[in-house]
Amino acid sequence: MNKFFVLLIMLFILNSEAAILYVLNSGSETLSRIDTITGIVDNAFASLGSMPNRLACTTDFIYVVNSGDNSIQKINALTGQTILNIFLETSANPYDLAIDEEYLYVTGALTNKVYKIDLDSDTLVDQITVGSNPAGLAASAGKLYVGNTDYMGNYANCSISVIDLENFTLIDNITAAVNPQYLLAEDNYVHVSCTGNWFDIMGTIQIIDVSTDSVIQAIPLNGYCGDLAYSSAGIIYIGDAMNEAVYAYYADTWEIIYSPQNPFTPGASVVEADPEFLATLGGEWGQNFTVRLYDLEENLITEFQAGLYATDMKFQPEASPENNCEILSSINITGFPNPFSSQIEFICSGSRAEISSLNIYDIKGRIVKTINTAGTITWDGKDQNDQILPSGIYFPRIMTDYGIFYTDKIVKIK
Where a domain ends, among 315, 345, 360? Predict the structure, then answer.
């Protein structure tokens, strides 16, 4: 392979967009940050509160339900620093959360409430009583759908509460199958994953038409139905709450693809998807969990090790062009020249921010060089032992005095 063709490949990778995956490690009470392009994994990206359970992401922030603290933890998505904690109420035992426009909605499993938080002011602005022991929730067509598991009543009165979001009032109550823990809004439907009673009633999927707020289809998967994710390939994947399999069905016809009799393996309790990837999260209880990354044709790309007993994961949403313009207008960090041969200089301009440190990673995610300084940073392409590194793709992670990381790809050539 000639050098020109190698350079073209490097430049193609240089211009590809990174997909960032955040994993909530409930057992170790940490948040993992996985760069799926570079393979860089930080399993201590953020420290979480007591008994963290579920998370939600925007382009700028991560919100974590800390059940043991009865609060929502707001985290800077770039630095991993905790910004604040939003207290709900004593013994709320928050379970899950969902973002719709400028509000965050949280279920209180022991107070039988849904809490409404204004994301602009980070304050609790309203609350409403729903059914018994609410868990998962999803927003669609100006309404919020809440799964009431009634686990303290032996699942006797499972239901889906429907809340009008404009007035934040309860407008309907839909009878549900046993233990409706997870909800997914997709197109004009809400898909409800009902896990079963963990004994003699197995899981099923119920599909609600949001125009009529009625269950129009039931899919008896007969596994321990868990988390749901919609793939842009037109498939809905379901994790198995016991990590035994992954199930799936077509989003348009509801035809089953994978079932307990014909499972997708290895098993996983959590599934997540973005426009390019399918990710599964599973493992043995009490041990570190594994993230497996697939393409949309279900070919395994790679695996990552997350933290102890991970219970949720989310891809970070891509920033809108407007948001990107705001960021670039305030802080602009460039490496020049790129590609480079013997030296590259990183300059921070367009604001008062200054670079304070720099880590250089290789293609395998290993730190090969760390530079601590202030202002402009120059790298000579050598490692910590002052040895010249080979040609290839490297990934700088830069910290400014504003606490903002900037990660980009650079190419070293001969």
Answer: 315
Closest CA to 152 of 98, 180, 110, 185: 110
Q: How far is CA 377 from CA 51, 99, 325, 387, in A?
A: 41, 39, 24, 18
Q: What is the pLDDT of residues 24-64, one digit of tens each?
A: 999 999 999 998 877 889 999 999 999 999 999 998 899 99
**Residue 162, domain member (yes or no):** yes
The neighbour count for residue 100, using CB atoms within 10 Å, is: 18
Provide the domain limits for residue 403.
322-412
Residue pair 224/268 in contact by the 8 Å Cβ criterion: no
pTM: 0.79
State how far the alpha carbon of 338 is from the alpha carbons of 108, 287, 327, 344, in Å.
51, 42, 21, 7
On whether both 45 and 164 belong to a single domain, the answer is yes
From CA 82, how far away is CA 95, in angstroms rounded? 20
Q: Which of 310, 317, 268 is nearest to 293 (CA)?
A: 268
Residue 182 lies in a domain: yes
* In a shared domain, residues 355 and 291: no
